# Entry
Amino acid sequence: MDSLALWNRYRECLCECPGLGVSVDYSRIWFPDGFFESMEPAIQRAFRQMAELEAGAVANPDEKRMVGHYWLRAPERAPDDAIRKAIETALRELKRFARNVHSGRIRPPRARKFENFLVIGIGGSSLGPQFVSRALWSPRDRMRAFFFDNTDPDGMDAVLAQIGQSGGLARTLVVVISKSGGTKETRNGMLEAELAFKRAGLSFARHAVAVTGDASELDRHARAAGWLQIFPMWDWVGGRTSELAAVGLLPAALQGLDVDGMLLGARYMDEATRVPVTRKNPAAVLALMWHHAGAGRGAKDMVVLPYKDRLELFSRYLQQLVMESLGKEHDLEGKVVEQGLAVYGNKGSTDQHAYVQQLRDGVNNFFVTFLEVLRDRHGRSSQVEPGVTSGDYLSGFLQGTRRALADKGRESLTVTVDHVDAMTIGRLIALYERAVGLYASLVGINAYHQPGVEAGKKAAAAVIGLQHKILQRLRTERAKSFTSEELAVAIGEPAEVETVHWVLRHLAANPDHRVKTRPGKTPFLTTYSAS
Amino acid sequence: MDSLALWNRYRECLCECPGLGVSVDYSRIWFPDGFFESMEPAIQRAFRQMAELEAGAVANPDEKRMVGHYWLRAPERAPDDAIRKAIETALRELKRFARNVHSGRIRPPRARKFENFLVIGIGGSSLGPQFVSRALWSPRDRMRAFFFDNTDPDGMDAVLAQIGQSGGLARTLVVVISKSGGTKETRNGMLEAELAFKRAGLSFARHAVAVTGDASELDRHARAAGWLQIFPMWDWVGGRTSELAAVGLLPAALQGLDVDGMLLGARYMDEATRVPVTRKNPAAVLALMWHHAGAGRGAKDMVVLPYKDRLELFSRYLQQLVMESLGKEHDLEGKVVEQGLAVYGNKGSTDQHAYVQQLRDGVNNFFVTFLEVLRDRHGRSSQVEPGVTSGDYLSGFLQGTRRALADKGRESLTVTVDHVDAMTIGRLIALYERAVGLYASLVGINAYHQPGVEAGKKAAAAVIGLQHKILQRLRTERAKSFTSEELAVAIGEPAEVETVHWVLRHLAANPDHRVKTRPGKTPFLTTYSAS
# Structure
């Protein structure tokens, strides 16, 4: 296609909603003539299903839950008054709480003010807050954000050391976030933090708030210990779509970000993407382009390249939102489909120096989403050469890469926003939430559950159970040394010998459980005993 | 396969080099009987090619360069004395420089000591330093590391603001890294930093060192301006394999990390992976497993999951090393092959909550590399429940996910290390450098060039060139307003109208070039003029 033909295609394939500040260019996805017509019945069905979901239908059939993240930014759309009031009250409460923390009305026992907050959460209870914290960070933030997002002891030690260099725990508020209240990584993070506060001679309860479901394990723990406050999570908000619930808004409000702007941006984007006119609806356009690029079965990866450092975590946020929603074994009729859409990427132009080599020349198993931000920086730029700024180069690299890929037949989408502020972040979140929902309808899957996550958790629990048996046995027969195979037999789990072996290696590498090791001629002849 | 069969497979498929502290479990790649035998001639050829390369053969034929990153940790292997001496001198010099900075013998004009360093580089001149800085960080570091790794003006402003909160530019050493000395992102970063120093009333030259090739643009600039010191880069070290040259070692030494340990770890790993006994050679095993999993054409993505927060950037480091090396259009005979191996991932168990749902249940287009670290933390752990630590959970989640994936037929490798220290980092770098080199031989491609990167750079330069013409024209006819199409014609580039349009949108969104806009009924009727 020559340049003028591409220009005409671009003019036809630019989805721009007036006043929205977000446009989607889909001219570099090579869908054929007639594609939109052929998909029209399917996308209209998706619009209808979305409308039912927004009206409170049980859209998550196996979990018998409503899916209501759209109500968070339009409480008047909630299916009943109780939900509407719960949303409004939670928002009012978390803003009041943040105000009181900033003013020092709510203050730590041993310092004048809270200056840091530590979010303890994982997955849906962490990625959104981390993405937004980084995207909207400014040197004028009201508080400094830290995160525990794993059960890595060394990782938590590192964060605690950084807090130590930044005012210390005495000035740190802890926000423990777990919808179910039973996520082990988060529970462990909370216990490690409690211990650190205790060692510093500080009352954890006077520094802690929770965001969790009513009557969850965390809810009961926080109430019993008398934490500062508890903010609600509801069963009709999924973890990966909870950024605009207290999960995301409380940390944002503490940091001093414009939570009302985030909500308003999402609300406007919802309105624009509710319109059932396919090519005027940017969420529908995204869903259809993903469907075309990946042949409706995730045959190609989505590489997300925001050309803006602040948005570096957007690709990780989308990785979760898209892959956990769309990576499903069964369709809604129970047929095995093994659906999904793999997402990766960091930022441009940095990633050009990491793997655009492969994208342009190598295996053609992807399409790119460029994310363009028109505004370069807050202030003015100086020139890096006559008549050119750093930002002109950033823009040039995006355009150059888009062209270099298209020249080799590689597909791309470009999402353009004016600048990065709270409204824009709200719009982007809402745009992709709806695109994922519509895509799920197109391929006939449930986007709102995650049955595949349970197996790994169960298997992990079995490992922990086996570790108990192993330690018990070693301590009962202190005089004796066992190989992995001998010990698996001794605890009556001969078939679990591999797990026994892995657990023993890990136990012996750490001083905590006092397991001694004597190396054998091979790793399998190494023996273990209690010391 | 039942548990005991898997245990026997694990025993057979564990590649462990005594004393190396790294093992590779490849029992969960479902290669068939006879696979190793069938690949033996190819891997032996790869060993021979690697031996020639290490002896100084021109292994990068189109660029007529030797490939000598292996000599960096074994200078006695360099093909001539001049190279050997250059390696040894550079190492001695950079360690001496770091010592002098730490002692205050080399100090900034307006402060007692350098407390921060700002690395300005991109791709191979940034990812390695960032990975190592994070992996080996401790609260006892000698200096604090910051990075400019893009030409995003707002991103640089953010880093400068963070430096402002951490002692300021007066206490900051700048390390500008560019092998070619002509990378625009790095040049722009340097100029933005120079300006920030000037605004702060500081002499940039007294704060700056360079790492670059002899007589490069950067080399000449640094000499002319009288920078503190210039460290060498050589044409026989590729950017993505330069972590153990001054590119990586200077930042590491400044941070106070054990650069000799990194080199020693790599040296030992090189020795272990030079052994041409396939199943005893962890690099060969990795290369062969990638080959099997991806059918020798990158048919599956490699998902890298280090279960250790410190190693979170390892997957990005590998993304660059693997994709830029292996993502090639042509094989060595010039045939179009479109090779590659896509790499993504962040860390476990965090990513379990983001996309293990898709990995287990969804599209089976990947294999996982688990990276296991046996040691949990520096000190001792408390228990999070009776008899169990946070680290036991981390280990349990890794094992649980490995099993849950295998139960569904998904493939995985596990690389295990004892703990994370400088030696281990050196080993991991060397292990993957060699695995990539061997894999490239298996599929018959040149791993040491990146021809596909040029097209995007050229296209970006063309955009900048067009911007000049646009601005000139607007300024010549100040009274006049143009649509994109009118302006493309006016500057004699009617075919480039799309680029003209994109450039105008960007110019109008920023105050720097004084381009005014008047919105039209559609984005294509918007007019632009100089103000």
Observations:
- The CA atoms of residues 180 and 213 of chain B lie 6 Å apart.
- Chain B has a mean pLDDT of 96.
- Chain B touches chain A through 154 residues (CB under 8 Å).
- Chain B is about 45% helix and 15% strand.
